[in-house]
Specification:
alpha/beta; 12 strands; about 600 residues; 18 helices; ten-stranded mixed beta sheet; two-stranded antiparallel sheet
Length: about 600
Protein backbone atom coordinates (compact mmCIF):
# COMPACT_ATOMS: atom_id res chain seq x y z
CA UNK A 1 0.00 0.00 0.00
CA UNK A 2 1.02 3.61 -0.21
CA UNK A 3 2.04 6.55 1.88
CA UNK A 4 0.57 9.79 0.54
CA UNK A 5 3.71 11.87 1.06
CA UNK A 6 6.65 10.37 -0.83
CA UNK A 7 10.12 11.70 -0.22
CA UNK A 8 11.13 14.09 -3.04
CA UNK A 9 14.11 11.88 -3.87
CA UNK A 10 11.70 9.22 -5.04
CA UNK A 11 9.85 11.42 -7.50
CA UNK A 12 10.87 11.46 -11.17
CA UNK A 13 12.74 14.57 -12.28
CA UNK A 14 11.32 14.31 -15.80
CA UNK A 15 8.73 12.16 -17.57
CA UNK A 16 9.84 9.12 -19.50
CA UNK A 17 8.11 6.69 -21.84
CA UNK A 18 8.41 4.01 -19.21
CA UNK A 19 9.08 5.42 -15.79
CA UNK A 20 12.08 4.05 -13.99
CA UNK A 21 14.11 3.02 -17.04
CA UNK A 22 17.70 4.19 -17.48
CA UNK A 23 18.68 5.61 -20.88
CA UNK A 24 20.12 2.37 -22.16
CA UNK A 25 17.21 0.10 -21.33
CA UNK A 26 15.43 -1.38 -24.36
CA UNK A 27 12.11 0.41 -24.27
CA UNK A 28 9.01 -1.63 -24.87
CA UNK A 29 7.53 -1.05 -28.33
CA UNK A 30 4.75 1.46 -28.64
CA UNK A 31 1.25 0.20 -29.12
CA UNK A 32 0.54 -2.57 -26.67
CA UNK A 33 0.23 -5.97 -28.20
CA UNK A 34 1.32 -4.81 -31.64
CA UNK A 35 3.29 -7.19 -33.78
CA UNK A 36 3.04 -10.15 -31.47
CA UNK A 37 5.00 -12.81 -33.25
CA UNK A 38 7.55 -15.50 -32.63
CA UNK A 39 9.53 -14.82 -29.52
CA UNK A 40 6.79 -12.80 -27.90
CA UNK A 41 4.54 -13.87 -25.10
CA UNK A 42 2.16 -12.98 -22.30
CA UNK A 43 -1.00 -14.21 -20.60
CA UNK A 44 -4.30 -13.78 -18.86
CA UNK A 45 -6.20 -13.89 -15.68
CA UNK A 46 -5.47 -12.30 -12.33
CA UNK A 47 -5.63 -8.66 -11.49
CA UNK A 48 -3.89 -5.62 -10.13
CA UNK A 49 -4.82 -2.78 -7.91
CA UNK A 50 -4.74 -0.02 -10.43
CA UNK A 51 -1.48 -0.43 -12.28
CA UNK A 52 2.01 -0.18 -10.91
CA UNK A 53 3.99 3.02 -10.87
CA UNK A 54 4.67 5.29 -13.82
CA UNK A 55 4.46 9.08 -14.10
CA UNK A 56 1.35 10.31 -12.43
CA UNK A 57 0.56 6.85 -11.10
CA UNK A 58 1.28 5.14 -7.82
CA UNK A 59 2.55 1.58 -7.43
CA UNK A 60 0.13 -0.86 -5.88
CA UNK A 61 0.38 -4.41 -4.77
CA UNK A 62 -0.59 -6.67 -7.62
CA UNK A 63 -2.48 -9.89 -7.13
CA UNK A 64 -2.49 -13.37 -8.56
CA UNK A 65 -5.28 -14.75 -6.45
CA UNK A 66 -8.91 -14.14 -5.77
CA UNK A 67 -10.07 -12.18 -8.78
CA UNK A 68 -8.03 -14.32 -11.13
CA UNK A 69 -11.07 -16.27 -12.14
CA UNK A 70 -13.09 -13.14 -12.91
CA UNK A 71 -11.35 -13.41 -16.29
CA UNK A 72 -12.48 -16.28 -18.42
CA UNK A 73 -9.09 -17.96 -18.50
CA UNK A 74 -8.13 -17.72 -14.85
CA UNK A 75 -9.69 -20.66 -13.20
CA UNK A 76 -9.77 -23.77 -11.12
CA UNK A 77 -9.38 -21.65 -8.05
CA UNK A 78 -5.65 -21.61 -8.75
CA UNK A 79 -3.70 -18.34 -8.68
CA UNK A 80 -1.93 -17.70 -10.78
CA UNK A 81 6.34 -9.55 -21.39
CA UNK A 82 10.77 -11.54 -25.71
CA UNK A 83 12.92 -10.24 -28.18
CA UNK A 84 15.83 -12.14 -29.64
CA UNK A 85 18.58 -13.98 -27.87
CA UNK A 86 21.00 -11.07 -27.86
CA UNK A 87 21.55 -9.33 -24.51
CA UNK A 88 19.64 -6.07 -24.18
CA UNK A 89 21.45 -2.81 -24.80
CA UNK A 90 23.28 -1.63 -21.75
CA UNK A 91 23.62 -5.01 -20.08
CA UNK A 92 27.00 -6.05 -18.77
CA UNK A 93 28.66 -8.88 -20.63
CA UNK A 94 29.20 -11.97 -18.54
CA UNK A 95 32.78 -12.68 -17.56
CA UNK A 96 34.16 -16.07 -18.37
CA UNK A 97 33.79 -18.72 -15.74
CA UNK A 98 37.57 -18.74 -15.24
CA UNK A 99 38.03 -14.97 -15.13
CA UNK A 100 39.33 -13.41 -11.93
CA UNK A 101 37.06 -11.21 -9.89
CA UNK A 102 37.04 -9.26 -6.68
CA UNK A 103 34.61 -9.91 -3.85
CA UNK A 104 32.36 -7.23 -2.52
CA UNK A 105 32.00 -6.59 1.16
CA UNK A 106 28.76 -6.63 3.10
CA UNK A 107 28.29 -2.95 2.29
CA UNK A 108 27.95 -2.03 -1.38
CA UNK A 109 30.41 0.43 -2.90
CA UNK A 110 29.45 4.03 -3.51
CA UNK A 111 26.42 3.76 -5.82
CA UNK A 112 27.96 6.22 -8.29
CA UNK A 113 30.70 3.75 -9.15
CA UNK A 114 30.41 0.27 -10.68
CA UNK A 115 30.56 -2.63 -8.27
CA UNK A 116 33.53 -4.93 -8.77
CA UNK A 117 32.74 -8.39 -10.01
CA UNK A 118 31.99 -10.61 -7.03
CA UNK A 119 33.86 -13.78 -6.29
CA UNK A 120 32.15 -17.00 -7.30
CA UNK A 121 30.13 -18.24 -4.32
CA UNK A 122 30.88 -21.71 -3.07
CA UNK A 123 28.51 -24.40 -4.22
CA UNK A 124 27.51 -22.64 -7.45
CA UNK A 125 27.51 -25.05 -10.41
CA UNK A 126 30.32 -24.36 -12.88
CA UNK A 127 27.89 -23.43 -15.62
CA UNK A 128 26.44 -20.64 -13.48
CA UNK A 129 29.67 -19.09 -12.19
CA UNK A 130 29.72 -16.49 -14.97
CA UNK A 131 26.27 -15.30 -13.98
CA UNK A 132 27.17 -15.08 -10.30
CA UNK A 133 30.34 -13.10 -11.08
CA UNK A 134 29.07 -10.57 -13.65
CA UNK A 135 29.36 -6.90 -12.72
CA UNK A 136 26.46 -4.55 -12.10
CA UNK A 137 27.27 -1.25 -13.84
CA UNK A 138 25.00 1.10 -11.92
CA UNK A 139 24.25 4.42 -13.65
CA UNK A 140 21.89 7.30 -12.81
CA UNK A 141 18.32 6.50 -13.79
CA UNK A 142 16.96 8.67 -16.58
CA UNK A 143 14.11 10.05 -14.50
CA UNK A 144 15.93 10.46 -11.17
CA UNK A 145 19.68 10.95 -10.92
CA UNK A 146 19.62 9.98 -7.24
CA UNK A 147 18.51 6.47 -8.13
CA UNK A 148 20.71 3.92 -9.88
CA UNK A 149 19.75 1.57 -12.69
CA UNK A 150 21.52 -1.49 -14.08
CA UNK A 151 20.92 -4.74 -15.91
CA UNK A 152 22.02 -8.32 -15.28
CA UNK A 153 21.87 -11.51 -17.32
CA UNK A 154 20.40 -14.85 -16.30
CA UNK A 155 19.97 -18.05 -18.30
CA UNK A 156 16.60 -18.64 -19.89
CA UNK A 157 16.96 -22.30 -18.90
CA UNK A 158 19.02 -23.07 -15.81
CA UNK A 159 19.45 -26.61 -17.10
CA UNK A 160 21.18 -25.13 -20.18
CA UNK A 161 23.05 -22.06 -18.86
CA UNK A 162 25.14 -21.69 -22.03
CA UNK A 163 22.01 -21.05 -24.08
CA UNK A 164 19.70 -18.07 -24.41
CA UNK A 165 19.66 -15.33 -21.77
CA UNK A 166 17.17 -12.96 -20.22
CA UNK A 167 18.46 -9.46 -19.42
CA UNK A 168 16.84 -8.20 -16.22
CA UNK A 169 16.24 -4.53 -15.45
CA UNK A 170 17.12 -3.35 -11.92
CA UNK A 171 16.56 -0.09 -10.07
CA UNK A 172 18.09 0.91 -6.74
CA UNK A 173 16.91 3.65 -4.40
CA UNK A 174 20.06 3.97 -2.25
CA UNK A 175 19.81 4.08 1.53
CA UNK A 176 19.25 7.68 2.56
CA UNK A 177 21.60 7.36 5.55
CA UNK A 178 24.72 5.39 4.54
CA UNK A 179 25.88 5.33 8.16
CA UNK A 180 22.83 3.23 9.03
CA UNK A 181 22.90 1.02 5.94
CA UNK A 182 22.11 -2.62 6.62
CA UNK A 183 22.24 -3.91 3.06
CA UNK A 184 19.83 -4.34 0.16
CA UNK A 185 16.09 -4.93 0.37
CA UNK A 186 14.87 -6.65 -2.78
CA UNK A 187 11.19 -6.02 -3.50
CA UNK A 188 8.37 -7.40 -5.65
CA UNK A 189 4.87 -5.86 -5.89
CA UNK A 190 3.04 -8.95 -7.11
CA UNK A 191 1.07 -9.71 -10.24
CA UNK A 192 2.48 -11.91 -11.58
CA UNK A 193 3.63 -9.29 -14.04
CA UNK A 194 4.13 -6.33 -11.71
CA UNK A 195 7.17 -4.13 -12.29
CA UNK A 196 9.60 -4.10 -9.39
CA UNK A 197 11.51 -1.36 -11.23
CA UNK A 198 8.49 0.90 -11.00
CA UNK A 199 7.87 -0.23 -7.43
CA UNK A 200 11.37 0.90 -6.42
CA UNK A 201 10.87 4.20 -8.22
CA UNK A 202 8.43 5.16 -5.51
CA UNK A 203 10.24 3.57 -2.57
CA UNK A 204 9.17 6.24 -0.10
CA UNK A 205 5.54 5.62 -0.94
CA UNK A 206 5.79 2.07 0.27
CA UNK A 207 8.47 2.08 2.99
CA UNK A 208 8.95 4.15 6.11
CA UNK A 209 11.73 6.76 6.39
CA UNK A 210 13.56 4.48 8.82
CA UNK A 211 13.59 1.58 6.35
CA UNK A 212 14.61 3.89 3.51
CA UNK A 213 17.48 5.19 5.64
CA UNK A 214 18.81 1.70 6.31
CA UNK A 215 18.32 -0.18 3.04
CA UNK A 216 19.11 0.15 -0.63
CA UNK A 217 15.65 -0.66 -1.96
CA UNK A 218 16.18 -2.75 -5.10
CA UNK A 219 13.37 -3.51 -7.52
CA UNK A 220 13.60 -5.64 -10.64
CA UNK A 221 11.32 -6.62 -13.47
CA UNK A 222 11.13 -10.42 -13.39
CA UNK A 223 12.23 -12.36 -16.46
CA UNK A 224 10.02 -11.73 -19.47
CA UNK A 225 8.23 -8.82 -17.83
CA UNK A 226 8.40 -5.03 -18.27
CA UNK A 227 11.93 -4.06 -19.30
CA UNK A 228 13.39 -7.52 -18.66
CA UNK A 229 13.50 -9.06 -22.15
CA UNK A 230 9.71 -8.77 -22.39
CA UNK A 231 7.82 -11.80 -23.58
CA UNK A 232 4.47 -11.08 -25.18
CA UNK A 233 2.00 -13.56 -26.51
CA UNK A 234 -1.32 -11.73 -26.30
CA UNK A 235 -2.59 -9.20 -28.82
CA UNK A 236 -4.94 -6.40 -27.84
CA UNK A 237 -7.72 -8.45 -29.36
CA UNK A 238 -6.80 -11.47 -27.24
CA UNK A 239 -6.94 -9.42 -24.09
CA UNK A 240 -10.30 -7.94 -25.00
CA UNK A 241 -11.56 -11.49 -25.55
CA UNK A 242 -10.67 -12.32 -21.97
CA UNK A 243 -13.28 -9.86 -20.79
CA UNK A 244 -15.92 -10.18 -23.51
CA UNK A 245 -16.75 -13.88 -23.16
CA UNK A 246 -19.59 -14.96 -20.90
CA UNK A 247 -17.85 -16.00 -17.64
CA UNK A 248 -21.01 -17.65 -16.25
CA UNK A 249 -22.32 -20.04 -18.94
CA UNK A 250 -25.85 -21.26 -18.40
CA UNK A 251 -25.80 -24.24 -20.76
CA UNK A 252 -23.49 -26.99 -21.92
CA UNK A 253 -23.12 -25.24 -25.27
CA UNK A 254 -22.13 -21.94 -23.62
CA UNK A 255 -19.63 -23.72 -21.38
CA UNK A 256 -18.15 -25.61 -24.33
CA UNK A 257 -17.70 -22.32 -26.19
CA UNK A 258 -16.01 -20.75 -23.16
CA UNK A 259 -13.58 -23.65 -22.76
CA UNK A 260 -12.76 -23.71 -26.48
CA UNK A 261 -11.98 -19.99 -26.48
CA UNK A 262 -9.75 -20.30 -23.42
CA UNK A 263 -7.91 -23.26 -24.94
CA UNK A 264 -7.41 -21.27 -28.17
CA UNK A 265 -5.99 -18.21 -26.38
CA UNK A 266 -3.62 -20.38 -24.31
CA UNK A 267 -2.41 -22.34 -27.33
CA UNK A 268 -1.83 -19.15 -29.32
CA UNK A 269 0.12 -17.69 -26.39
CA UNK A 270 2.35 -20.76 -26.23
CA UNK A 271 2.96 -20.69 -30.00
CA UNK A 272 3.81 -16.98 -30.06
CA UNK A 273 5.86 -17.04 -26.88
CA UNK A 274 8.11 -19.91 -27.84
CA UNK A 275 10.78 -21.26 -25.53
CA UNK A 276 11.08 -18.11 -23.42
CA UNK A 277 7.41 -18.23 -22.48
CA UNK A 278 8.04 -21.73 -21.12
CA UNK A 279 10.62 -20.37 -18.66
CA UNK A 280 8.73 -17.72 -16.69
CA UNK A 281 8.07 -19.84 -13.61
CA UNK A 282 8.34 -18.49 -10.10
CA UNK A 283 10.98 -21.09 -9.29
CA UNK A 284 13.18 -19.67 -12.08
CA UNK A 285 12.56 -16.10 -10.88
CA UNK A 286 13.62 -17.21 -7.40
CA UNK A 287 16.88 -18.54 -8.86
CA UNK A 288 17.35 -15.18 -10.62
CA UNK A 289 16.95 -13.50 -7.23
CA UNK A 290 19.76 -15.58 -5.78
CA UNK A 291 22.08 -14.46 -8.59
CA UNK A 292 20.96 -10.89 -7.82
CA UNK A 293 21.66 -11.35 -4.11
CA UNK A 294 25.25 -12.33 -4.86
CA UNK A 295 25.76 -9.45 -7.30
CA UNK A 296 24.42 -6.97 -4.76
CA UNK A 297 27.11 -8.16 -2.34
CA UNK A 298 24.68 -9.55 0.21
CA UNK A 299 25.44 -12.81 1.96
CA UNK A 300 21.75 -13.22 2.67
CA UNK A 301 18.70 -11.96 0.78
CA UNK A 302 16.49 -9.41 2.50
CA UNK A 303 13.12 -9.32 0.75
CA UNK A 304 9.73 -7.61 0.85
CA UNK A 305 7.03 -9.14 -1.32
CA UNK A 306 3.38 -8.24 -1.69
CA UNK A 307 0.54 -10.39 -3.02
CA UNK A 308 2.01 -12.75 -5.66
CA UNK A 309 5.38 -11.50 -4.37
CA UNK A 310 4.68 -13.57 -1.25
CA UNK A 311 4.46 -16.70 -3.40
CA UNK A 312 7.82 -15.73 -4.93
CA UNK A 313 9.29 -15.08 -1.48
CA UNK A 314 8.10 -18.43 -0.16
CA UNK A 315 9.55 -20.27 -3.15
CA UNK A 316 12.90 -18.48 -2.69
CA UNK A 317 12.94 -19.30 1.02
CA UNK A 318 12.17 -22.95 0.34
CA UNK A 319 14.83 -23.17 -2.40
CA UNK A 320 17.58 -21.20 -0.59
CA UNK A 321 16.73 -21.37 3.14
CA UNK A 322 20.31 -20.77 4.29
CA UNK A 323 20.61 -17.68 2.06
CA UNK A 324 17.63 -15.93 3.61
CA UNK A 325 17.97 -12.80 5.73
CA UNK A 326 14.93 -10.76 6.75
CA UNK A 327 11.80 -11.46 4.75
CA UNK A 328 8.36 -9.83 4.97
CA UNK A 329 5.47 -11.29 3.00
CA UNK A 330 2.47 -8.94 2.79
CA UNK A 331 -1.01 -10.14 1.78
CA UNK A 332 0.05 -13.69 1.31
CA UNK A 333 -0.74 -16.92 -0.47
CA UNK A 334 0.77 -20.34 0.13
CA UNK A 335 2.38 -22.41 -2.65
CA UNK A 336 0.79 -25.39 -0.89
CA UNK A 337 -2.83 -24.27 -1.19
CA UNK A 338 -5.22 -26.83 -2.64
CA UNK A 339 -8.14 -25.96 -4.90
CA UNK A 340 -10.62 -26.56 -2.09
CA UNK A 341 -8.67 -24.40 0.36
CA UNK A 342 -8.40 -21.70 -2.28
CA UNK A 343 -12.13 -21.74 -2.80
CA UNK A 344 -12.96 -21.43 0.88
CA UNK A 345 -10.46 -18.60 1.34
CA UNK A 346 -11.80 -16.70 -1.66
CA UNK A 347 -15.38 -16.96 -0.49
CA UNK A 348 -14.39 -15.62 2.91
CA UNK A 349 -12.26 -12.83 1.43
CA UNK A 350 -14.88 -11.72 -1.09
CA UNK A 351 -17.83 -11.84 1.28
CA UNK A 352 -16.09 -9.99 4.11
CA UNK A 353 -15.04 -7.28 1.62
CA UNK A 354 -18.47 -6.89 -0.01
CA UNK A 355 -20.07 -6.78 3.44
CA UNK A 356 -17.68 -4.01 4.47
CA UNK A 357 -18.65 -2.03 1.37
CA UNK A 358 -22.35 -2.56 2.03
CA UNK A 359 -21.92 -1.48 5.66
CA UNK A 360 -20.30 1.73 4.38
CA UNK A 361 -22.81 2.34 1.61
CA UNK A 362 -26.25 1.61 3.07
CA UNK A 363 -26.27 4.37 5.72
CA UNK A 364 -25.54 6.93 2.98
CA UNK A 365 -28.43 8.80 1.40
CA UNK A 366 -26.89 8.32 -2.04
CA UNK A 367 -26.18 4.57 -1.76
CA UNK A 368 -26.81 2.81 -5.07
CA UNK A 369 -27.98 -0.27 -3.16
CA UNK A 370 -30.68 1.54 -1.22
CA UNK A 371 -31.19 1.53 2.53
CA UNK A 372 -31.96 -2.16 3.03
CA UNK A 373 -28.78 -3.91 4.09
CA UNK A 374 -30.40 -7.33 3.90
CA UNK A 375 -31.34 -6.82 0.26
CA UNK A 376 -28.17 -5.12 -0.91
CA UNK A 377 -26.41 -8.28 -2.09
CA UNK A 378 -29.46 -9.42 -4.04
CA UNK A 379 -29.54 -6.08 -5.86
CA UNK A 380 -25.99 -6.76 -7.12
CA UNK A 381 -26.93 -10.35 -8.05
CA UNK A 382 -29.89 -9.04 -10.05
CA UNK A 383 -27.69 -6.41 -11.70
CA UNK A 384 -25.21 -9.02 -12.87
CA UNK A 385 -28.02 -11.20 -14.19
CA UNK A 386 -29.41 -8.21 -16.10
CA UNK A 387 -25.93 -7.40 -17.42
CA UNK A 388 -25.49 -10.98 -18.62
CA UNK A 389 -28.73 -10.66 -20.59
CA UNK A 390 -28.59 -7.06 -21.80
CA UNK A 391 -25.10 -5.68 -21.12
CA UNK A 392 -24.33 -2.06 -20.31
CA UNK A 393 -23.85 0.74 -22.83
CA UNK A 394 -20.69 2.88 -22.81
CA UNK A 395 -19.18 5.75 -24.77
CA UNK A 396 -15.87 3.88 -25.34
CA UNK A 397 -15.22 3.15 -29.04
CA UNK A 398 -15.02 -0.59 -29.66
CA UNK A 399 -16.63 -1.34 -26.31
CA UNK A 400 -19.96 0.41 -26.68
CA UNK A 401 -21.60 -2.52 -24.89
CA UNK A 402 -19.95 -4.49 -22.11
CA UNK A 403 -20.99 -7.65 -20.32
CA UNK A 404 -20.35 -9.56 -17.14
CA UNK A 405 -16.62 -9.94 -17.72
CA UNK A 406 -15.77 -6.24 -17.56
CA UNK A 407 -18.46 -5.44 -15.01
CA UNK A 408 -17.59 -8.17 -12.52
CA UNK A 409 -13.86 -7.51 -12.86
CA UNK A 410 -14.34 -3.78 -12.25
CA UNK A 411 -16.57 -4.30 -9.23
CA UNK A 412 -13.98 -6.62 -7.72
CA UNK A 413 -11.19 -4.11 -8.33
CA UNK A 414 -13.12 -1.47 -6.42
CA UNK A 415 -13.09 -3.73 -3.37
CA UNK A 416 -9.29 -3.66 -3.11
CA UNK A 417 -9.31 -0.44 -1.11
CA UNK A 418 -11.96 1.59 0.69
CA UNK A 419 -10.68 4.60 -1.27
CA UNK A 420 -12.44 3.04 -4.30
CA UNK A 421 -15.78 2.54 -2.58
CA UNK A 422 -17.17 5.93 -3.74
CA UNK A 423 -16.23 4.96 -7.31
CA UNK A 424 -18.00 1.63 -6.90
CA UNK A 425 -21.10 3.33 -5.51
CA UNK A 426 -21.29 5.74 -8.45
CA UNK A 427 -20.49 2.94 -10.91
CA UNK A 428 -23.30 0.78 -9.53
CA UNK A 429 -25.73 3.70 -9.62
CA UNK A 430 -24.89 4.25 -13.28
CA UNK A 431 -25.09 0.51 -14.02
CA UNK A 432 -28.60 0.26 -12.59
CA UNK A 433 -29.52 2.83 -15.26
CA UNK A 434 -27.99 0.63 -17.97
CA UNK A 435 -24.70 2.49 -18.44
CA UNK A 436 -21.19 1.23 -17.73
CA UNK A 437 -18.72 4.08 -18.29
CA UNK A 438 -17.56 4.40 -14.68
CA UNK A 439 -17.05 0.69 -14.15
CA UNK A 440 -15.35 0.26 -17.53
CA UNK A 441 -12.99 3.16 -16.84
CA UNK A 442 -12.00 1.50 -13.57
CA UNK A 443 -11.38 -1.86 -15.20
CA UNK A 444 -9.42 -0.40 -18.12
CA UNK A 445 -7.19 1.58 -15.75
CA UNK A 446 -6.29 -1.62 -13.91
CA UNK A 447 -5.22 -3.48 -17.04
CA UNK A 448 -3.78 -0.33 -18.71
CA UNK A 449 -6.10 -0.30 -21.73
CA UNK A 450 -6.67 3.08 -23.38
CA UNK A 451 -9.80 4.32 -25.11
CA UNK A 452 -8.51 3.29 -28.53
CA UNK A 453 -8.25 -0.34 -27.45
CA UNK A 454 -4.47 -0.46 -27.00
CA UNK A 455 -3.07 -2.15 -23.90
CA UNK A 456 0.17 -0.83 -22.47
CA UNK A 457 3.15 -3.11 -23.16
CA UNK A 458 3.65 -3.18 -19.41
CA UNK A 459 0.21 -4.54 -18.54
CA UNK A 460 0.51 -7.41 -16.13
CA UNK A 461 -1.94 -9.40 -18.30
CA UNK A 462 1.01 -10.29 -20.57
CA UNK A 463 2.47 -12.49 -17.83
CA UNK A 464 -0.55 -14.29 -16.54
CA UNK A 465 -0.83 -17.37 -18.76
CA UNK A 466 2.89 -18.37 -18.87
CA UNK A 467 3.38 -17.83 -15.14
CA UNK A 468 0.11 -19.34 -14.03
CA UNK A 469 0.54 -22.41 -16.22
CA UNK A 470 4.09 -22.95 -14.89
CA UNK A 471 3.24 -22.37 -11.25
CA UNK A 472 0.20 -24.51 -10.65
CA UNK A 473 -0.66 -28.12 -11.45
CA UNK A 474 -3.26 -29.00 -14.02
CA UNK A 475 -6.67 -29.39 -12.45
CA UNK A 476 -7.90 -32.94 -12.24
CA UNK A 477 -11.51 -33.88 -12.86
CA UNK A 478 -12.26 -34.45 -9.19
CA UNK A 479 -15.96 -35.24 -8.64
CA UNK A 480 -15.74 -34.31 -4.96
CA UNK A 481 -14.26 -30.91 -5.77
CA UNK A 482 -16.83 -30.36 -8.52
CA UNK A 483 -19.60 -31.12 -6.01
CA UNK A 484 -18.05 -28.75 -3.46
CA UNK A 485 -17.85 -26.02 -6.11
CA UNK A 486 -21.46 -26.51 -7.12
CA UNK A 487 -22.57 -26.36 -3.48
CA UNK A 488 -20.53 -23.20 -2.89
CA UNK A 489 -22.06 -21.51 -5.94
CA UNK A 490 -25.57 -22.32 -4.70
CA UNK A 491 -24.87 -21.03 -1.21
CA UNK A 492 -22.94 -17.92 -2.32
CA UNK A 493 -24.75 -16.64 -5.43
CA UNK A 494 -23.02 -13.26 -5.57
CA UNK A 495 -19.59 -14.85 -5.19
CA UNK A 496 -20.53 -17.30 -7.95
CA UNK A 497 -21.41 -14.48 -10.31
CA UNK A 498 -18.21 -12.63 -9.48
CA UNK A 499 -15.90 -15.61 -9.99
CA UNK A 500 -17.43 -17.04 -13.12
CA UNK A 501 -16.91 -20.60 -14.35
CA UNK A 502 -14.20 -22.61 -12.62
CA UNK A 503 -12.03 -24.57 -15.02
CA UNK A 504 -8.42 -25.16 -16.07
CA UNK A 505 -7.24 -22.70 -18.73
CA UNK A 506 -3.82 -24.39 -19.06
CA UNK A 507 -5.02 -27.53 -20.82
CA UNK A 508 -3.28 -26.51 -24.07
CA UNK A 509 -0.07 -25.25 -22.44
CA UNK A 510 2.84 -27.44 -23.65
CA UNK A 511 4.63 -27.96 -20.34
CA UNK A 512 3.57 -29.37 -17.00
CA UNK A 513 2.82 -27.18 -14.02
CA UNK A 514 4.57 -27.16 -10.68
CA UNK A 515 3.58 -29.79 -8.17
CA UNK A 516 2.98 -28.24 -4.72
CA UNK A 517 5.35 -29.57 -2.11
CA UNK A 518 2.55 -30.23 0.33
CA UNK A 519 4.85 -30.14 3.35
CA UNK A 520 6.70 -27.68 5.54
CA UNK A 521 8.44 -24.95 3.53
CA UNK A 522 11.82 -23.27 4.07
CA UNK A 523 13.10 -25.60 6.77
CA UNK A 524 16.03 -23.96 8.57
CA UNK A 525 15.32 -20.44 7.29
CA UNK A 526 15.47 -17.32 9.45
CA UNK A 527 12.15 -15.98 10.77
CA UNK A 528 9.74 -14.95 8.01
CA UNK A 529 7.13 -12.32 8.88
CA UNK A 530 3.78 -12.96 7.18
CA UNK A 531 1.21 -10.16 7.37
CA UNK A 532 -2.32 -9.59 6.08
CA UNK A 533 -5.59 -7.71 6.48
CA UNK A 534 -8.56 -9.53 7.96
CA UNK A 535 -10.76 -8.33 5.08
CA UNK A 536 -8.69 -8.68 1.91
CA UNK A 537 -10.67 -9.62 -1.22
CA UNK A 538 -7.60 -10.51 -3.30
CA UNK A 539 -5.39 -12.59 -1.02
CA UNK A 540 -7.79 -13.55 1.76
CA UNK A 541 -6.61 -13.89 5.32
CA UNK A 542 -7.07 -17.66 5.21
CA UNK A 543 -4.27 -18.01 2.67
CA UNK A 544 -2.07 -15.64 4.68
CA UNK A 545 -2.58 -17.75 7.79
CA UNK A 546 -1.86 -20.94 5.87
CA UNK A 547 1.44 -19.58 4.52
CA UNK A 548 2.53 -18.63 8.03
CA UNK A 549 1.77 -22.19 9.11
CA UNK A 550 3.37 -23.83 6.07
CA UNK A 551 6.64 -21.96 6.59
CA UNK A 552 8.94 -23.63 9.11
CA UNK A 553 9.80 -20.23 10.61
CA UNK A 554 6.65 -18.32 9.70
CA UNK A 555 5.38 -15.61 12.06
CA UNK A 556 1.85 -14.34 11.57
CA UNK A 557 0.78 -10.70 12.05
CA UNK A 558 -2.78 -9.71 11.16
CA UNK A 559 -4.43 -6.32 10.78
CA UNK A 560 -8.09 -5.65 11.54
CA UNK A 561 -8.49 -3.65 8.34
CA UNK A 562 -10.04 -3.77 4.87
CA UNK A 563 -8.32 -3.94 1.50
CA UNK A 564 -5.30 -5.43 -0.18
CA UNK A 565 -1.91 -4.51 1.28
CA UNK A 566 -1.09 -4.24 4.96
CA UNK A 567 2.24 -2.49 5.61
CA UNK A 568 2.40 1.32 5.46
CA UNK A 569 -1.33 1.49 4.84
CA UNK A 570 -2.40 3.43 7.92
CA UNK A 571 -1.94 0.92 10.75
CA UNK A 572 0.90 2.20 12.95
CA UNK A 573 0.94 -1.06 14.92
CA UNK A 574 1.72 -3.04 11.74
CA UNK A 575 4.27 -0.48 10.59
CA UNK A 576 6.07 -0.58 13.92
CA UNK A 577 6.22 -4.36 13.93
CA UNK A 578 7.50 -4.61 10.34
CA UNK A 579 10.07 -1.85 10.88
CA UNK A 580 11.24 -3.49 14.08
CA UNK A 581 11.90 -6.70 12.22
CA UNK A 582 13.56 -5.15 9.15
CA UNK A 583 15.72 -2.77 11.20
CA UNK A 584 16.54 -4.82 14.29
CA UNK A 585 15.75 -8.37 13.30
CA UNK A 586 13.16 -8.62 16.06
CA UNK A 587 9.84 -10.03 14.85
CA UNK A 588 6.60 -9.65 16.79
CA UNK A 589 5.11 -12.56 18.65
CA UNK A 590 3.49 -15.12 16.39
CA UNK A 591 -0.25 -14.49 16.14
CA UNK A 592 -0.11 -10.78 16.98
CA UNK A 593 -3.17 -8.80 15.84
CA UNK A 594 -3.10 -5.06 15.17
Amino acid sequence: MLNDTPHPDDLPEAPSAYAALPPDYPHAPSGAGAGAGAGQAGSSGGSSVGGAGGPGRSPRLLVAAGVAFVLVVAVALAVWKGGGAEPAAGSTALPSATGSSSPTGPTSPNPSTPAPSPAAPSGVPAGLVGFYTQRLDWSPCSDNAKHRCATMDVPVDYANPSGDRFTLALRKAPATDPAKRLGSLVINPGGPGGSGVEYAQYASFVFSPAVRAAYDVVGFDPRGIGASSPVRCLTDGDMDRLFSSDPTPDSAAERSKLLAEADDITARCAARGGDRARHLSTTEVARDMDVMRALLGDERLNFFGGSYGTFLGAIYADTFPTKLGRMVLDSAMSPNQTDEQEMSYDIQGFESSIDAFIDWCVPRSDCALGSDKAGARQRIVQLLDDVERDGLTTTTPGLTRIGEGWVGFSIFMCLYSDTSWPTLNQGLKEAFAGRGDILLEKGMSVVERDGSGAYAPTTYLQAMIPVRCADWPRSANDPALAAAQAKAKREHPLWARMTGELYDNCRTWPTAGRTPKGSTLAVGAAPILVIGNERDPATPIGGTKQLAEDLDSGILLTSDHDGHGTYYAGNSCVDSAVDGYLLRGTPPADGTTC
